Structures are given as C-alpha cells and as structure tokens.
Amino acid sequence: MQKTTILKSLGVTNPDSFLLIAGPCVVESRDMTLRIAEQLAQASSKLQLPLVFKASYRKANRSSLDSFTGIGDDKALQILEEVKLQFGLPLTTDIHKDEEAAKAAEVVDVLQIPAFLCRQTSLLLAAAMTGKTVNIKKGQFAGPEAMKHAVEKIRKSGNDKVMLTERGTTFGYHDLVVDFRSIPTMQELDVPVIMDCTHALQQPNQAKGVTGGQPRFIDTIASAAIAAGADGIFLETHPDPANALSDGANMLPLDQLAPLLKKLIRIRAAIVG
Hints:
- This protein has 273 residues and is an alpha/beta fold.
- The chain contains nine helices and 13 strands.
- The strands form three sheets. The chain has an eight-stranded parallel β-barrel with strand order 1-2-3-4-5-6-9-12, surrounded by six helices. The chain has a two-stranded antiparallel sheet with strand order 7-8.
- The protein starts with a helix and ends with a helix.
C-alpha cells in the first residue's frame, strides 16, 4: 500500500501508532525555534511517537498587511536545517509559489501545500517534481471527494508520495466546522490522512484583520480524529501563544502537548484493541 510506505518513510513503523506533525506557525527566531524543537523531540522520544517538525519559513497568507511574515527566507531555512541536524527530525514547511518548491526541498522532507492553494496545478506539479512527500491541505471550500484530483496531479507527475490534511470547512463568514467523514473518505485514495487540529479551529475573516480561534477545542478535535482513524495529527504549538507572531489565537500551549499526546495514544490503543 502506498499509504503504509509513506508513513514508514516518516517513522511510523508501528501500524497501531500515528504521526505527529507539530511546531510553531512560523520561524520567529533561532532561539524560539530550537527551544520548541527540543521539547517536541523529547516528547516524541519519551512517548515513542514519530514526529515531523513543522514551521513556515515565510507566511504569505496573512489577514493584514502589517502582519508578521518572517525573518527572511534564507535565514529561516538555515534555522530549520539546524533543527534537522541537531535533533534528527524530519521537517515540513509550506510553499506558495512554484519557484519555492526546489529551494525548500533542499532542506525539508515534506512540502506542504496550503489549503487555499490545493487546486493550484502548477504549484502541485512543482512540489511533485522535487520527489519529496507532498502534504496537501484540503481547502476550506472543497469536499473530501474532490481531493482525488489533487492527488492525481502528484501521482501523474511520477511521485507517489502524497498525503492529505483535513483542516475544516467554511461555515458562514467567520467559522469552520469539521466533518470527520472526510477522514475515511480521503483514506480511500490510499494516502495518509492527517487532522490539522489547530487551523480547524480558526475563526477567519475577522474585521479587525487578525484571525481568531477556539483553542479550547483542540483536545476535542484531536481526540475525535484519532477515534475516526486519522493517520496523524497536525498541531501548531508555542510556549506563549498570546505573544506568538502568527496564529497565536488557535495554538496549543507547549506545556499542554504531552498530556494531550498521552490521551491520544490511549484512544488509539483502545481503537486498535
């Protein structure tokens, strides 16, 4: 199975386990990124949970012109490479333009396609041509069945390493909902399906120009996803979300991560029984 092969390549050797993709929303600084990576690596090792470290090297999609977008592409990618070398973690970051694919692929193991760009054919093809695993986030506007077309674009480029991530569906102007039927539906494509437990709780399009969120429901979304058979969970985390430079309104406080993961491991164990 292609799904099993992809998961094994990212460290999921136990079929009863699941993948954790976690990290800060964006590379804020070297010290903050390494601090978060160290704590995630320790939790991953202690809980024997395979981890892919996530951080954006540039934030291209922000509500306001004044929002933080990054510390510089080259500097941020160098910091991500340091995370890989120091902690031995596979990496993922998101790309927004075709020309970013090859550059990011020199550093990371998984190229993430943002939800708003999941239909952007040239971007998908550029990511596929790097030979890296491509994780496509399902658009907030897209049904799970429609994601077969995005998957086909990657596979027809000669790259079978593709994943899908559920991150909620638009519900009115300022909210998202999660239909957990999308997990088994997208798994029918023989791809790993990840649940983005933080962005699914965003409250976008706020008039003040800053996306809101409901992080108190992260536990609920994550627990339901694991119970529904998700192959992994995606979490953005930070030691001080209130002062994070991006997406702080829906991030998981770093000190709450380990207790949540322990609960999810128990849920998965009960499911596979």
